[in-house]
Recover the amino acids of this structure.
């Protein structure tokens, strides 16, 4: 890990990943000032008030649900999954871009990830929290959620290990735990910076507790980097496994439109697509409001736009394969399911989906569009909507007309469905607002390593270093 | 000799290059009980201090194996021994269906070992450490680089070590109260 930290920050012929003229001190002061010294802005308070109201709406929606039961939602038979599962899959997918940026791009030594990884990881955690709400409240009796876990009991109750729904419990809780740990480990050195820079006693105590006595010792950094790199290596297959398991919830059933081997890769690609769209949706305004153009440069946004385009094409390939396999299977129910998607009562949603996920992202082929913030923001919003529609189509359109026409039904979300969904969007933004105000939204210590001064220059030190290891061996090291 | 013993002597440097060079020089002079502090990880510094490779990866491997085997055993025991369900005579030990949770438990236990193992080996959380007695040490988390030779080193001598550190062209040498 330390190796790629010490890569030269600017590859020749490419725009730099950090604005010119910065030093260790200026990077530290600029990022920590957002938390420590800048006055709380009106806009931030207004944002907190609006999203706080949405959080209250979420509370009311959930409280009423607990009193009345899931009958307040639009779910019915056969569409038993409705908004709860659509939103669960949508939120989980959004979280995946955070892990991709923080873990996979770290392993691929993409140093440009440094200024967006902290933010993206926070987004992951909050998105997974929002996602976790839905299966819990969809259970009908959420207070028995612990029945999902294997624990000794006198009720003759045990999880069914062969069910993807049980796999989901393990996958999502592991994902949340590992994401939280990864985020916190990354925060420890920056908490120490805030502890040492804070002017208020409260700040020093709180950041001091969170920093756990971090003092930047070389021996500590050595273990720290090992732990961080191995966590990244663990998180990489984990993120793939999580959305694969989510897709198994569908693919392992025998419902036409769900029973398909393309689902795992198609879901993972869709998750990254949705996630990068959300990172862009958030990064563009945050960068503008907090004046972080030096750290989140056009190169970052352009790189993310390219990933958005690439993952979007993978998702569209998934749509194509779904249609092809339905036709190639020769199964009349599969064929009907595919045609129903296009020409059934929800057909208009499918065309909207194609507009959002297939047509609009194609503008990203052009550099002019990728570097235009307004265009990029609109494309990202369109993809957010498109991916939500995709989940709606997978869940509702497949369920509403199954093999027996006697079972056919329509699904209409109620006001409580919408209140819960919008409430979680409020919760997500509410938590992000608290995050940007109270924690450093850019990893300060990793930004320092991007500066040219961070390189140890070859010189006298290098000559002497040849003697030192030999000595170290002779005396058995000094640890 | 002062009546009060010291934790060590600390030199402050302005660049990572100066710190790495000073660490090399101190090691050549025979000092072993020392530590270097920097605001970001410096690979050359780990080498200069002669830090031995950490045991952490081995611990993480063990943690992951415990998680993996434990996770599989949990499912196998419940599905085969404790709570067998006969569904059309299908095999009880349907191991391919146990793989996803086995994988998740491997990652979970390895990840927990990575984080808590790193903290434990580093001796964190540590509410008090003598180096924080140096007021300028607050800059170790901003833009300054420190080398501390500890009093436990057999070669440590308040005056001689101080003179030695001053030869390394530090910005300042301070005494670290215990």
């Amino acid at each position: 890990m330390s190796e790629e930290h010490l890569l030269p920050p600017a590859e020749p012929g490419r725009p730099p990943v950090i604005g010119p003229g910065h030093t260790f001190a200026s990077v530290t002061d600029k990022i920590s000032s957002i938390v420590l010294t800048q006055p709380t802005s009106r806009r931030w308070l207004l944002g907190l008030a609006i999203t706080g109201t949405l959080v209250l709406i979420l509370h009311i929606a959930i409280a009423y649900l607990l009193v009345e039961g899931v009958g307040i939602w639009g779910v019915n038979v056969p569409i038993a999954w409705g908004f709860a599962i659509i939103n669960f899959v949508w939120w989980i997918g959004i979280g995946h871009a955070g892990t991709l940026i923080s873990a996979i791009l770290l392993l691929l030594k993409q140093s440009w990830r440094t200024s967006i990884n902290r933010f993206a990881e926070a987004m992951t955690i909050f998105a997974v929290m929002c996602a976790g709400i839905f299966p819990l409240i969809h259970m009908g009796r959420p207070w028995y959620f612990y029945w999902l876990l294997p624990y000794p009991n006198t009720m003759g109750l045990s999880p069914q290990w062969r069910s993807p729904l049980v796999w989901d419990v393990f996958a999502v809780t592991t994902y949340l735990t590992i994401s939280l740990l990864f985020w916190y480990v990354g925060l420890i050195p920056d908490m120490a910076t805030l502890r040492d820079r804070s002017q208020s006693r409260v700040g020093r105590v709180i950041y001091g507790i969170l920093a756990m006595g971090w003092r930047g010792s070389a021996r500590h950094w050595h273990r720290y980097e090992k732990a961080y790199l191995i966590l990244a290596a663990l998180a990489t297959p984990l993120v793939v496994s999580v959305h694969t398991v989510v897709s198994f919830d569908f693919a392992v059933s025998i419902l036409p439109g769900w029973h398909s081997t393309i689902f795992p890769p198609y879901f993972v690609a869709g998750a990254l697509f949705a996630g990068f769209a959300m990172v862009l949706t958030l990064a563009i305004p945050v960068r503008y409001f907090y004046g972080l153009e030096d750290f989140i440069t056009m190169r970052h946004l352009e790189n993310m736009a390219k990933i958005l385009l690439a993952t979007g094409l993978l998702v569209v390939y998934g749509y194509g394969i779904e249609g092809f396999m339905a036709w190639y299977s020769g199964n009349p129910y599969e064929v009907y399911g595919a045609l129903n998607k296009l020409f059934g009562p929800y057909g208009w949603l499918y065309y909207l989906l194609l507009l959002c996920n297939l047509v609009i992202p194609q503008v990203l082929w052009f550099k002019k569009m990728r570097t235009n913030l307004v265009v990029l923001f609109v494309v990202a919003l369109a993809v957010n909507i498109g991916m939500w529609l995709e989940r709606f189509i997978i869940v509702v359109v497949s369920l509403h007309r199954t093999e027996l026409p006697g079972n056919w039904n329509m699904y209409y979300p109620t006001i409580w469905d919408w209140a819960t969904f919008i409430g979680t969007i409020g919760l997500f933004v509410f938590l992000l607002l608290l995050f940007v105000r109270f924690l450093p939204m850019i990893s300060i210590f990793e930004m320092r390593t991007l500066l040219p001064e961070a390189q140890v220059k070859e010189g006298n030190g290098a000559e002497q270093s040849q003697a030192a290891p030999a000595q170290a061996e002779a005396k058995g090291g000094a640890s | 000799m002062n009546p009060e013993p010291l934790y060590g002597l600390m030199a402050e440097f302005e660049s990572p290059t100066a710190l790495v060079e000073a660490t090399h020089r101190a090691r050549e002079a025979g000092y072993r009980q020392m530590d270097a502090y920097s605001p970001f990880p410096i690979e050359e510094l780990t080498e200069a201090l002669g830090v031995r490779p950490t045991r952490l990866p081995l611990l993480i491997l063990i943690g992951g194996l415990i998680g993996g085997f434990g996770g599989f055993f949990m499912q196998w025991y419940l599905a085969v021994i404790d709570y067998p369900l006969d569904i059309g005579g299908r095999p009880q030990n349907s191991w391919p269906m146990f793989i996803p949770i086995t994988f998740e438990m491997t990652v979970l236990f390895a990840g927990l070992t990575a984080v808590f193992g790193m903290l434990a080996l580093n001796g964190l959380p540590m509410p008090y450490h003598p180096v924080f007695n140096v007021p300028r040490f607050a800059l170790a988390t901003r833009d300054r680089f420190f080398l501390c030779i500890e009093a436990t080193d057999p070669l440590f001598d308040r005056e001689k070590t101080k003179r030695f550190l001053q030869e390394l062209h530090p910005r300042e040498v301070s005494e670290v109260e215990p």
Summary: Chain A is about 70% helix and 0% strand. The longest helix of chain A spans residues 164-197. Residues 2-148+161-189+238-454 of chain A form one domain.
